[in-house]
């Protein structure tokens, strides 16, 4: 773990915030390339980059694995790949900040699963209010884009629930590495069948690799280091800032201006996520 020694000197809170910024910077850069290549190609480059680097770092052992182990890692990889594919399809149709806000309902739902506290109804109502408000803002939402964001959120929820089991059955980064390889393989088949790689330019590949590093490798390294000293509940609260961070980066890099109603909607979902994490007794692993 010596590679993380320098990061341990940085306060854990700033590591998580830096990870959030890295993810949303990568997303904004990816959307900025949609004029020269497809969302599918960006997702393929992102997943291929992260899978390759994880394979080089983790070098997972595949022997002595049961059929249940392989089924679990395949399901996890399917959630990972579909989540990335769906959210980039959503980015192509609706503003980035709003797509991430809708997607975030997935982990919020996980935080509230099984809750029987009356207080948690507040967070459900608050999140629902945010979603309803999105339909009344000045930005016209493509229903297909909303549907893709919702699909990404459902896959994010599956990613969290399966990830907890994966961590018990696969040591270290091995499960994540194998799942990432499966997800990348699935996207490779998709873009190849569609012939989307025939006119891919080298500079786009370079930016795509950077997106993979920004969106997967850097944030995972920062977050896993932060979690060594930070309580999971505090981590979950900080991760609730994702939708707001997405909107800020989209505004700064893509010029995606949101109205007051959209910002209020984002604030409702962020507040619901913070409340669910802080008070419901459950913490998200995002």
TrEMBL record:
<feature type="transmembrane region" description="Helical">
    <location>
        <begin position="260"/>
        <end position="279"/>
    </location>
</feature>
<dbReference type="GO" id="GO:0005886">
    <property type="term" value="C:plasma membrane"/>
</dbReference>
<keyword id="KW-0812">Transmembrane</keyword>
<feature type="domain" description="EamA">
    <location>
        <begin position="144"/>
        <end position="275"/>
    </location>
</feature>
<keyword id="KW-1133">Transmembrane helix</keyword>
<feature type="transmembrane region" description="Helical">
    <location>
        <begin position="145"/>
        <end position="164"/>
    </location>
</feature>
<keyword id="KW-1003">Cell membrane</keyword>
<feature type="transmembrane region" description="Helical">
    <location>
        <begin position="200"/>
        <end position="222"/>
    </location>
</feature>
<feature type="transmembrane region" description="Helical">
    <location>
        <begin position="94"/>
        <end position="114"/>
    </location>
</feature>
<protein>
    <submittedName>
        <fullName>Inner membrane transporter RhtA</fullName>
    </submittedName>
</protein>
<feature type="transmembrane region" description="Helical">
    <location>
        <begin position="234"/>
        <end position="254"/>
    </location>
</feature>
<feature type="transmembrane region" description="Helical">
    <location>
        <begin position="41"/>
        <end position="58"/>
    </location>
</feature>
<feature type="transmembrane region" description="Helical">
    <location>
        <begin position="70"/>
        <end position="88"/>
    </location>
</feature>
<dbReference type="Pfam" id="PF00892">
    <property type="entry name" value="EamA"/>
</dbReference>
<keyword id="KW-0472">Membrane</keyword>
<feature type="transmembrane region" description="Helical">
    <location>
        <begin position="176"/>
        <end position="194"/>
    </location>
</feature>
<dbReference type="InterPro" id="IPR037185">
    <property type="entry name" value="EmrE-like"/>
</dbReference>
<dbReference type="InterPro" id="IPR000620">
    <property type="entry name" value="EamA_dom"/>
</dbReference>
<feature type="transmembrane region" description="Helical">
    <location>
        <begin position="121"/>
        <end position="139"/>
    </location>
</feature>
<comment type="similarity">
    <text>Belongs to the EamA transporter family.</text>
</comment>
<dbReference type="InterPro" id="IPR051258">
    <property type="entry name" value="Diverse_Substrate_Transporter"/>
</dbReference>
<feature type="transmembrane region" description="Helical">
    <location>
        <begin position="12"/>
        <end position="29"/>
    </location>
</feature>
